[in-house]
Amino acid sequence: MRRDEQLQLLLKTIALLVLLWLVKAFINKTTPENLGLFANNIYTEEDAFGKVITRDSRGWVIDTRLSDGKITDDFVLVHLNNPPNTPIYVYPKDIDMYVSSDIIMKGEYEPYNVKIMIQYMKRFPNAVFLDLGAFVGSFSIAIAALEYKVVAVECLKSSVRRLYASMKEAGVSDRMSIIHNVISDKRKPVVIETEPGNMGLTYVDLRKSEGKEIVKSIVLDDLLEIFQFKEAIIKMDVHQFEDMVLNGAYKFFKKVNVEAVLMEFIHHQSDSYDNDGKFIVDFMEAHGLEPDVPEDIKQDYKKWQTAEILFKRKRPFSHTL
Predict the structure, then answer these.
(1) Nearest-5° Cα angle at 92, 90 to 95
(2) With contact defined as beta carbons under 8 Å apart, do 184 and 273 qualify?
(3) pTM
(4) pLDDT in tens, 261-317
(5) Would you say the C-alpha torsion 24, 30, 33, 36 has a positive or negative sign?
(6) SS3 category, 274
(7) Residues contacting 183, CB < 8 A, separation 6+
(8) Beta bridge partners of 214
């Protein structure tokens, strides 16, 4: 081979190596480590506990971006009253005027509802507490601290980071898993928004296709791919998405004995979204659950007077539903 040919071959080899390096650098920069070409997949629930996981087109993977353990100045460490002295990281009061402010000042948020969920976990200690719309974890961290299994689902990155930090601080990693997704009835990217000064009002804006924070939506049935649920107690606060969650949960409710669902229902009383209130009530009825409301208004959900409604099991669970 002539000298000029050798030189050309060397230059081509160098160019190819540079190109491969640039491609690798691009992948590392634009794709999260956990969602990269060599994703760290999750296949069993044992692998999911103590981690932040997410589901995308490659399946279930560890979301290492949100579980690096980094705690910044806007992480406020306080303690819950129930259980006593349980550590939890929240937002500063000036950017979260309701949930975080209450926890900072009172050591609790919605204590009555938390108490209801704890009572159900005591009745069904082998159940998994499924927290849909976990936010900073006022329910999840409290219940995990009482030695129960918890799967917390949250879509906002900054809240997931706080959940992870709280899980570590409270020492409940062996029984808690955090999912970074939206739960809906379709699998697609969605835009996440928050209300200024009220981080607790996190919601999906279906009118937008672009935004500062985009996350994949999945269906509740997808959780059955890795979690071996037999019994579950569910808290559902997903800001007007409750009917969509149920519309993607037929398999889940057929396979899992759901003993109770505490749901934010106030947005569905007027049937503003395609008879969504009626759909929720009918879905619960079809799966053996009834609302815990006075008997005289049980059949008229537009008269239910509380923002959250507890649906409780009224007939024995059956896989043949």
Answers:
(1) 110
(2) no
(3) 0.86
(4) 999 999 898 866 668 999 999 999 999 999 999 999 999 999 998 999 999 999 999
(5) negative
(6) coil
(7) 132, 153, 217, 218, 219, 220, 238, 241, 245, 248
(8) 191
